[in-house]
Write a structure and sequence with these properties.
alpha/beta; Rossmann fold; 2 domains; 6-stranded parallel sheet; globular; binds uridine-5'-diphosphate-xylopyranose; oxidoreductase; UDPglc_DH_bac; EC 1.1.1.22; NAD binding; UDP-glucose 6-dehydrogenase activity
Length: 438
């Protein structure tokens, strides 16, 4: 099929390459000339494992190309995926719909008869119905439809999640739209991927419900970490033990500095805002607690760090391992690691941050922090080392060797993934959140 993917960020660039790889003819659309130039050469403008190879292959094969023209997109495509961002509005919990609205307004006049606009962005429930009305208003003559197809990809696994999703969810208003989406996703359906076809509102809600559930699971285990710290328990053993119950499951029960990124924090807030508008704010009041538990993790980490350096950061060197909001990503949006680094600097600490991939993005957001491309350089003369993003190379560190470069061998494992026993036997004092006795 002839497919356009509008918005080539983390979601759109991966979706475009995967659609081209699945046998479609794809046109990617963006307003950012730098992104377009990189993508046209087969280079992703961000770090995502597997994407460079996929992009190069599909661009070289001629099945994927890029443009900045919505008119060209409208004239070319049978199916148009809308993949632009819906960030949190300044000064409010609600999602900012200006990018989605601008795409629909720009595309509608150019749509061809029989085409389908498919929203993928995470939006407040009711948006799809509103946008369908907008298309009818802007181009009353055209026989075009709108559907919603939420995306569940995780950064770091985006290619695999798109090519082999664990489910496909589509919100449609006609059999024709459903048939077109089945054709788009034919390779996944042949491979046995579950396909859930529903109404527009349910499809929109599935996405925010899934993210709210994941955020709740993480904050649940982090709340248990708070209790463990007070009672002298061990949150990792607790998570392992409850995780054996298949009704609960161990995944997304890793306690630590909490969740960040471009999705979970803003999505639960936008969901609360929308529920309030719908008059059911009380139903989601627990998400406020989820958000609060999560934000307290950052504060608790800073407090523990201050305690470990003797009550004040003044004159202390602090090394931060990790800047990205999670490993295998260079995304620093709402990153707990960087927030903690900035808070320690604000309180007078000399902070040096290491990350294997996210230094450039981190520097753009927090230009006054000090950065190091080398782990040992970051830890040189440190009074405290904080492990805040669980990159594999941090698990492989030689604790004995690192001990020689620091001033004080004191470590906080903010992700509960390092081998505490090995670090201790190398001579380090190790602390972690929710593991007071360990
Ligand atoms: C998330 C959803 O998983 C995905 O389905 C949706 O499409 C977009 O939002 P992503 O933001 O890429 O994906 O990251 P995810 O792997 O879900 O992690 C989110 C945050 O939670 C990260 O900061 C991660 O470090 C943290 N996390 C995750 C925990 O603190 N503990 C856990 O047990 C799991």
């Amino acid at each position: 099929m002839r497919i356009t993917v509008i918005g080539t960020g983390y979601l759109g660039a991966v979706h475009a390459a995967c659609m081209a790889d699945s046998g479609h003819e794809v046109l990617g659309v963006d307003v950012d000339p730098r992104k377009l130039a990189a993508l046209s050469e087969g280079r992703p403008p961000f770090f995502e494992p597997g994407l460079p190879e996929l992009l190069r292959r599909t661009v070289d094969a001629g099945s994927l190309r890029f443009t900045d023209s919505l008119q060209e997109a409208g004239e070319f495509g049978e199916v148009h995926f809308v993949c632009v961002g819906t960030p949190q509005q300044p000064g409010s919990y609600a999602a900012d719909m200006k990018y989605v609205d601008a795409v629909v307004d720009g595309l509608a006049p150019h749509l061809r008869d029989g085409s389908l606009v498919v929203g993928k962005s995470t939006v407040p429930v009711g948006t799809a119905a509103r946008l369908a009305g907008r298309i009818a208003e802007l181009n009353p003559a055209v026989d075009a439809e709108l559907a919603w197809n939420p995306e569940f990809l995780r950064e770091g696994f985006a290619v695999q999640d798109t090519l082999r999703p664990d489910r496909l969810v589509v919100g449609v208003t006609s059999e024709r739209a459903d048939a077109m989406l089945r054709e788009v996703y034919a390779p996944m359906l042949t491979a046995g991927c579950p396909y859930i076809s529903t109404d527009l509102a349910t499809a929109e809600l599935v996405k925010v419900a899934a993210n709210s559930f994941l955020a709740t699971k993480i904050s649940f285990v982090n709340a248990m970490a708070e209790v463990c710290d007070a009672a002298g328990g061990d949150v990792v053993t607790l998570a392992d033990a409850i995780g054996h119950d298949t009704r609960i499951g161990r995944r997304f029960l890793s306690a630590g500095v909490g969740f960040g990124g471009g999705c979970l924090p803003k999505d639960i807030r936008a969901f609360m805002a929308r529920a309030g508008e719908l008059g059911v704010g009380e139903a989601l009041s627990f998400l406020k607690a989820v958000d609060e538990v999560n934000m307290r993790r950052r504060q608790r980490t800073v407090d523990l760090a201050r305690e470990l350096v003797g009550g004040s950061f003044l004159g202390k060197n602090v090394a931060i391992l990790g800047a990205a909001f999670k490993p295998d990503s260079d995304d620093v949006r709402d990153s707990p690691a960087l927030n903690i680094a900035a808070a320690i600097q604000l309180q007078g600490g000399q902070v040096r941050v290491h990350d294997p991939e996210a230094i450039d993005n981190a520097r753009a957001q927090f230009p006054t922090l000090d950065y190091a491309l080398d782990i040992e350089k970051a830890c040189e003369r440190a009074d405290l080392v904080l492990h805040l993003t669980e990159w594999t190379q941090y698990r492989e560190l030689d604790a004995g060797r690192l001990l020689k470069v620091v001033r004080e061998p004191v470590l906080i494992d903010g992700r509960n993934t390092l081998d505490m026993a090995a670090w201790r036997s190398a001579g380090w004092t190790v602390r972690a959140l929710g593991r007071s006795q360990h």
